[in-house]
Amino acid sequence: MLNRLRVRVLRAGFSMFCIGAASCGDGIPPAMNQIEIFAPGLEISIKHDGAGQFHQRLENKKGYFNLGREGFAKLQTQTEPYRVSHETISADVVSDYIAKDIRCEGHYVTDQGGITLHWKGQSIDQFYTVDYGCDGELHAARNRALRGILTSLPVPPPALLP
I need a surface site. Which of 35, 74, 126, 140 has the fewest CB within 10 A? Predict the structure, then answer.
């Protein structure tokens, strides 16, 4: 009994350390101040309290919306698998990544669009970017999920590519 209690106390202490430090693979994402989403001709910014804004460049349409804290938490949960993936890029190297123009190592179709997620917080500044034209068949499920996240938001659709 005493050993079980010690294990529980150690686990609780470890969990609290992980929450304070960032996610330790336990499914709890680190605290974020903002999530930004970029799609063709569309920029979206959502703060931790759910207050969001968008700018649709093609029609120069700007607007505001509010998801509430619960909506932000849902968005954070939906995007978390991408944030912790091996394809995430830190803000320190994102400009190098863009400059190298490394698009795709597999089958590539131009003008398919894409999406970039940007997580910002006190201990986090990460990007995840996807070009839908890169191995579209291989990544079809991922691309559908990312499009689903975007269409779930109260914003205009991204611009269609030629």
Answer: 140
**Six-digit token pair at 153?**
């938001």
Q: For residue 56, what are its two tokens?
A: 């649709």
Helices marked H in the chain: 2-21, 68-83, 94-100, 140-151
- How do residues 99-156 score in pLDDT, each as one tens digit? 566 666 666 666 667 889 999 999 899 999 887 767 667 778 888 999 999 999 999 9
d(C-alpha 61, C-alpha 64), whole Å: 11
Residue 160 confidence (pLDDT): 73
Which of these, 159, 150, 24, 38, lies nearest to 142 by C-alpha position? 150
The mean pLDDT value of the chain amounts to 77
Tokens, residue 110: 């131009």
Centroid of chain to Cα 94 = 14
Count of CB atoms within 10 A of residue 156's CB? 16
- Angle between helical axes of 68-83 and 140-151 (0-180°, round to 10): 160
